[in-house]
From TrEMBL, chains A, B:
The name this protein goes by in its record: Amidase
Ranges of residues in domain Amidase: 36-439
Region feature (Disordered): 137-168
Stored PROSITE patterns: AMIDASES
Length: 463, 463
């Protein structure tokens, strides 16, 4: 059922190289941070014309930071597992002195003067910032193909969307340009492109990675998240950025299978792919379901709150310079601006009740598993696809299985789960707040080492 | 400028009798709680046909509670200053076993099974609950003249509105039917009818009197408040219901005059009446102003948040049984349901900034003084009045000087400030959260004993 890629294409230096490997190599002097930065810059120069992962690359700054990292290591100052590691940062996260545009003409040439909190943590951890990655305009869209800087493209097939909104971050990791990228996730914006591009993506519990200095989409749901080749690399980066993470679980996590079809129709091959990769290690899984009414209320709470907050962020721009928006983003923001306040109020009020309803699913399970996205990557600009005998909206489909966990602020991890027609699929793991370690433990047990060696760019698909 | 009433009319037993007098009489055995309850019931029977203050009177329960209060006092159990005192409760506050209708046909015959938190406190303080007082339907209106149980009428002129939404509570006190009544105040619903009817009315800081068991209008702004003949009686009742009140101020409060005209046009005679009664004791006052932009943002934050929350409360009723609403209330709720979520979000976001802006007004003053309402009581059903050379909406006028303090949750007290054309006016005092004692101290210093002996019902005014 899990099809194999059929042709190969150029990949960056970091394809197949884990953060653990890189850290070991750095400390054994087999490589240097400067070498790694150069490899990243070379890969970007070579591959980015094909996939448009980056909006800005800051070679001089990256090399300077890398030399500093090398000096520190030589002097015995070791900042931990991200020390000297090239990292890409989504173009909605402020980095002092670098152009950060939100993928929008409204912010063309914008250069922040202060680092976002998560960027400060990256720098303190010794990471080397390579550049800014393409975002769907204002992070307002899961397709990744509406941006003032052009669409980010899926490395498995550049005619297909990367997913979004952290599309460039997923592409940069999937193409081996960097081993780690930072994204944001309001309804799935880390996990969706990770799944469509074949990387791991991790959204911690709400608020654990600080959102200070991140351009807001919807404050109630905005999360900062991590993209890397594997769950293990996400875990390493997470613990490097967040103190106080818990050690490994005291017992093997009990994993339940959450039937995704009460949330949205799912491509049967995608569903089977995700389930098979999990069951091959866990054996038969208990079946769980989100009650239909809870599923509907989760969707409504997501839409009402996200719409109200997004329209509030952009009210002046909508009134004064609508022409600077991408037309589709403009239409969607205008629609969001009509969502009535009473639905927002109801959404906020529903959340504790919905949290209780979902918490009940964890009564006998530590981790819930389901596909990350119900389809594989559609062609760029495609807005409807056939699914399960009907037509569905691409945006609705992309968000359907990820956004419920943003409503509740639950930790969520996506890991590669094989391919369908040569296109990646994702397995999503969800847990209670404070139990993030169970996601990593489950992923380590259930999912074999990512198929680092599989080919990327250049496959041909029926469009 | 402060005109005198010109004719007399029947008044209830409690006109001119303070809580302090009543408490002393009870303990000196000059009266009993049973006598007081009978006086209240007699006054209601005699006067309520003229003013419609009450929706339900529970004579048997009141007399039983009064006898119990008498037994306790005889046995040496003294529950404090409200022990044996007849109290009326607004018809949106749950009282177990009594009909509570929200002034709406939607709740005709509704009998709650549990007391609201504030009712439980009243009972624990020994108060004798006489009955439910008329509310504007669902407390959604400051005029007090739209209710399934008919309009409450101003005791000074029953052709005029009481103000609302706690209209019945103000009327019951103003007409001497009870010495104390409980109301709710979301934008001025305690203070407005208090001012128009010539009583005192006190809204503590947000959340100090619990709203549990009160039918919601707008959670962010809903307050429980007290109505009594004088500020001193409000103070006594407040301290009987809330523990931990601070003692008298360490220095005489510094009172500033807040020019109300950046908030709304004000009848010059009403303005002079309020200012004169204050200046006669304080001497010349410093002039302060709410900056125009702050005034506008306060109004917007009030409207957006209150509309969204009110429409959320009533969404099912609006969809399923619109016919059961009063037509004006229905129109207003339908309009509220169209307020977009982004304005709600902006309103919430503005509040800390607005709190800072208003806090700056307190830099050199402990108490801000302004009129409570910019006009005297209009005729019932009147929706526009001439003011300051133009036409203004009655609802806008009634709410204009009170609602800003709900946005910020500040303590606010209105006290009678003489009459204009024989109709009462109010002086409103505002302070910082936690400084409620300054309001009472200022009122005691500035305002002479309420004109308890002035006549009420039966004056004739030019309509």
């Amino acid at each position: 059922m899990i099809s194999s890629p059929t042709s190969a294409a150029p990949r960056g230096h970091f394809a197949g190289r884990s953060l653990g490997d890189l850290a070991a190599d750095l400390r054994r002097r087999r490589t240097t941070a400067t070498d790694l930065a150069r490899h990243a810059l070379d890969a970007v120069a070579r591959l980015d014309p094909l996939v448009n992962a980056f909006t800005t690359v800051s070679a001089d700054e990256a090399l300077a930071a890398a030399r500093q990292a090398d000096r520190e290591l030589a002097d015995g100052l070791d900042r931990g597992p991200l020390h000297g590691i090239p990292v890409a940062v989504k173009d909605v996260i402020m980095v002092a002195g670098r152009p950060v545009t939100m993928g929008s003409r409204h912010f063309a040439g914008h250069v922040p003067t202060t680092d976002a909190d998560c960027v400060r943590r990256l720098k303190e951890a010794g990471a080397v910032l390579v550049g800014q990655t393409t975002t769907h305009e204002f992070a307002y869209g899961p397709t990744g193909d509406r941006s003032a800087t052009g669409p980010s493209r899926n490395p498995r097939d550049p005619g297909r969307m990367s997913g979004g909104s952290s599309g460039g971050s997923a592409v940069a990791v999937a193409a081996g340009m960097v081993p780690l990228a930072i994204g944001t996730d309001t309804g799935g914006s880390v996990r969706i492109p990770a799944a469509l591009c074949g990387t791991a993506g991790f959204k911690p519990a709400y608020g654990v990675l600080p959102t200070g200095g991140v351009f807001p989409l919807s404050k109630t749901y905005d999360h900062v998240g991590l993209l890397a080749a594997s769950a293990e690399d996400c875990r390493i980066a997470y613990h490097a950025l967040v103190t106080g993470g818990r050690p490994s679980a005291e017992h093997a996590s009990r994993v339940g299978w959450l039937d995704p079809r009460t949330l949205f129709p799912v491509d049967a091959r995608v569903l089977r792919s995700a389930r098979t990769v999990l069951e091959s290690s866990t054996g038969p899984l208990d079946e769980l379901r989100v009650p239909q009414r809870v599923a509907e209320e989760l969707r409504e709470a997501y839409t009402a709150i996200q719409s109200g907050e997004a329209a509030a962020v952009h009210a002046e721009r909508l009134a004064e310079r609508p022409d600077l928006f991408d037309p589709e983003v403009l239409d969607r923001l205008r629609a969001a601006a009509t969502v009535p306040a009473w639905r927002y109020v109801r959404g906020l009020k529903a959340r504790p009740r919905l949290a209780d309803a979902v918490d009940a699913l964890f009564e006998r399970h530590d981790v819930l598993a389901l596909p990350t996205v119900p389809i594989v990557a559609p062609l760029i600009d495609r807005r409807e696809v056939d699914l399960d005998g009907g037509r569905v909206g691409v945006r609705d489909a992309l968000l359907a299985l990820t956004s419920p966990w943003n409503v509740l602020g639950l930790p969520a991890l996506t890991v590669p789960a094989g391919t369908v027609d040569g296109l990646p699929t994702g397995l999503q793991l969800i847990c209670r707040i404070g139990e993030e370690h169970r996601l990593f433990e489950t992923a380590a047990r259930a999912v074999p080492r990512t198929d680092h060696e599989s080919p990327l760019i250049g496959e041909s698909h029926v469009h």
